[in-house]
Amino acid sequence: MVDDRIAANRARVEKLIAKGVNVLVPESVIVGEEVGFDNIEPGVVLGPGTKVLGAETMIGAGTEIQGAAIIKNSLIGRNCSLAAGEYADSVLLDGCSTVGWARIRGHSAWEEGSNSSHNVDTKTTILGYKTTLGSLINFCNVLMLGGTSPRLEVGSEVGSGTINFNFLPFGATVGALIKPSTVVGSIESPFLACDGAPTRYAFVGGHTSIIAPVVIGLGTVVAAKSRINPGIYENDKLIGGGNIEKPIVLDVSKVRILKDITPKYEILIRQMAITVAFRKWCAFRIEWAKRNNLDKFEIKLIEGFVAKVDKYMEALEAYGNNIAKYLLASDDNSRPDSLEKNKTIATGWNEKIKDRIKAFMSDETGYAEAVAGLNLELDRITKEESGEAKQFYDVLTKLSYESVEVKTTKEYFSGLVETIINQVMRDMT
User: At 72, which CATH number?
Assistant: First the structure.
């Protein structure tokens, strides 16, 4: 039986080699019987000890899996470089890279050129164009959009040793986990790839503790070894300090009794608004890809990315649901002076607020007019470069940041965020 399995795996590896996949040490590579061979393009390099598993797995030409890596139900773009580690249920677009023992899982999605150093773990985390993560980073439930830094090969950046803390040890029932999230950057970030755009990005210094829920604006610099408490930090700020020198000791029963929950929902609404706008931006990318006849591999890759953004949105909604459930489960879960306000907000969340936010996903008001000019310019440049490999941000970089087409589209997406926040906050109050 064991010999039969070895022979069957050897046959699958040989089939990949025959189609042009470079398998460096064939006897050490495992290919699951469920893997679709059409999803592994010629020119892929599979290093020693690599496991390729899962019916959904795709790997694009020019990508090198350096070895001792597990790829399972993940969509890996072209010209990526992935070191040892685990890549599960995630999407990495073209040109992404990792260094030693990455763990990219749980519906993570990285836009083109995003990269990490060693021992990085992301889960349900979305990285924008050319975002860089240092070493020893744990990011769960983070949306971090890119930008342009003085080093043109990178955008927004996170220093080594940074952690996004997003678990609370109590919820609507004993042991339930509430999962708040962190958003870094703004919907302006993708447009910073345009020619002549200002140098703006977000930088989080090393050994920073982010206590979610948090929104950190574009252009913000967080000093190393800072502690970022829950809150909304506007654009272009310097954040430093915040470390607790004197320990706080309280009865846990007191911590479970929540004060005015309004600030938490204000953060959540802003996070969801930015995510809705970014989701529509991703849909815009799919429209461009289909209109310009990109190959099926690239279209499927971008569609897979959008599906992971949807998962991040679901995580945000689940956070709001958990808080509401906890507040409505017992009057004892709120402080007496905040009880009525908390119950009103929780009820409003369940009955109208979350649905109001999600409705903007399909609201096309003003969209076609706002993107029409940008579409024409993108299509023109794409056709002029028809002989070259087409990548969305490579095309976008050839447009002027100051052009009417870019400004109009950028104003639409930024305006969408503010519209959602303003309308939904009125519902909450």
Answer: 2.160.10.10
